[in-house]
Here is the input.
Amino acid sequence: MYQTTYHRASSVDEAASLFAKGTEAKFLAGGQTLLPVMKQRLASPSDVIDLGKIKELQGVELSGDVLTIKAGTTYFDIMQNADVKKAIPAIAYLTSVLGDPAVRYRGTIGGSIANNDPAADYPAALLALGATVKTNKRSISAEDFFQGLFTTALEDGEIITAVSFPVPAKAGYAKMRHPASRFALTAVFVAQTKSGEIRVAATGASQSGVMRVPAIEAALKANWSPAAIDGVSVSASNLLADIHGTAEYRANLVKVMAQRAVTAAG
Amino acid sequence: MSTVKLTVNGKAVAVDVEDRTLLVQLLRENLNLTGTHVGCDTSQCGACVVHMDGKAVKSCTMLAGQADGANVTTIEGIAKGDELHPMQAAFRDNHGLQCGYCTPGMIMSAIDIVHRHGGELDEATVRQELEGNICRCTGYHNIVKAVLDAAGRMKVSQAAE
Here is the structure.
């Protein structure tokens, strides 16, 4: 790891002002991605601003039909949380198959979505549920937030403070886990909103990061059942292909994971 | 350079380190607690697991500064004098190690698993929960046996306290 200067912020405002003073600063949430990347010397921030001790970034609130998870809440705290389990159990499940126990103690939802890894889990949940990302400057819809591989709508120095999820009528998540990295080889989040809209998002599949799958949404709109997806064809063009799986394999996984997610959603 | 103040195995320490220092480097190189190992250095293998404020974390994937003010327990801090921790004793009795490289991390993760699941542990749960710890010798079989054995012993020793 290259030299850097470590700062611990005690509030979001302090973090923002520390960032502004750095020449090439980076925010550190749980560090489960940033630190490995710094160790590989793929990132060399002049300053690291630790958000881990900021109290206003911790916690979960359920208010009516909106579940709000503050950005610094760890995976462990999310999967254990009674409101998460009650309102959107698919999010608790998604979190329980993310990383490993030690990673789940440290990693945070804000860190995950700010990084926007194309095979990360949370982007699929945000996109399928129509979540809103709250920052210290504005609110951004999930649709506008995720902008391709490792790219988001966040401006330099902007800090995610929370994610708000509308509580759906039904939701489910299914993931083909890469056994070593534990990232999604392909995973699908399906949701039926309370107004009856069907939204399906796949992660780990597309070269452009998390994506909606309109063909599966249409099939499920007509008939909410795993069998409804049998006849859908998912195009392999623009899907990821690597030593772990071809684009055609991932295209098939999108269907199979969507079917399993519908089964899980009930 | 920054001064990191933390409690390690019950002892308050203050260590001057470069800001880029990882917690595992502080433990091994500044405090000479070399029981905590660096295996993969990519947060996959779990050889570096220690407890921070009661939670099993990968000390190779934390800056030392992030542990400022924390209470850290390493493999050196779990025995009571000459009396092994029940998890250590169970690993010995069940032949839960061969080369021993992964063992400190395995034991620290395993204690955390027992703390979280208590007497509800079964083989499938242990295997799933140990996914962040890699062993290249044992095939895991005796490690799982040791964790299940220790879960029973820890319950008994808790009940006795």
Notes: The first strand of chain B starts at residue 2 and ends at 8. DSSP finds five helices and five strands in chain B.
